[in-house]
Amino acid sequence: KEIKAVFVTHSHLDHIGRIPQLYKNGFRGEVYSTIPTKDFARILLEDSERILFKEAERENQKPIYDLNDVEAVGRIWKTQEYRRPLDFGDFKITFYDAGHILGSAFILLEAEGKKIIFSGDLGNPAPSLMKPTDEIPAADYCLMESTYGDRLHHDNVSREDALEDVVENSVKNNGVLMIPAFAMERTQELLYLFNDLVKNKKIPDVPVYIDSPLAIKLTDVYKKYENYLNLSHPAIASLHKDIFSFPNVHLTLTKEESKAINDTPSPKVIMAGSGMSNGGRILHHELRYLSGPENSILFVGYQAAGTMGKAILDGAQEVRIFGETVPVRCRIEQISGYSAHADQEELLDWLKPDRESLKKVFLVHGEEESSRVLAQKIRDGLALNAVVPGIGDSFEL
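Request: output the structure for the sequence above.
Response:
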């Protein structure tokens, strides 16, 4: 109840998922973000509420919030443009473009004569869909993410060529290409790449099914705010008006439309959630097509330990789907370089301009090893005091 305002860097669920719970527990201040982030948040929080309700019902517990809380949060959620300061009297807030996903931001807080940067999640500059991350303004302190603090991304230039090869091989084998894809950012990036490949006649004419209601809804937000995208990039500028649509792409919203995909002849491409094959419509297609040696499955995202996607990628001979044992005989493909996160080198490059002004850097939002390695790199390479806070640690600034 004492909190005056919440400032949201971007709409990924690990950053917004408990805001309705905050409201349920008495928060009655205001929420601020960029315009696209608010639109994404409404869709994602409604979807999350539905999943949480089912889980709570299954576990015979009360959900941590309900749809009324989600709707109430929407009424107190305000929006702000990049690089336009918000004055709250005793402190000031400015959003800057983080280049991570559509509408993502890092935030400058100015209070009591001090300037503090909250990085949120910083973008990987290689994917051309997002505008470049804004330069860091001069500040005294920085709370910075460290998701990829201990590693570098693979070469991103070859992503389109690799996708072209996978599609061509699938068509040649008259097979089904399954792509487990995250509804947010990954699906839109793939749609853009498919559009470019189709326009330039680099792949055969093959139907592409986007079998994810959530991804379709989120893509509509991308279309609504295309001015936030990197439209000046030559590859995007060369495409027709709708960069996420192309001949022979099919959006399947209903269950009936999803089931009808089975009746269409091969070859075909099916893109569906979830991105790690641990739920969603992709499971129905994997149940049907994993056992066919003429088919392929393409992983374009991180596969966490314990997920079916990870098991398939690691060479599992069979998997269990809806209680059935399914042999894995299809071709297994992976394309790296689709991460929306800045890697170690990019994080250091972003921080470097502030090495003269920063008194301390706090590394958050990363696994312990990632944060620890990045902290040492910052100390050695930038001569800055870098700290990895523990749970409950407090600091006097």
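The chain has a mean pLDDT of 93.
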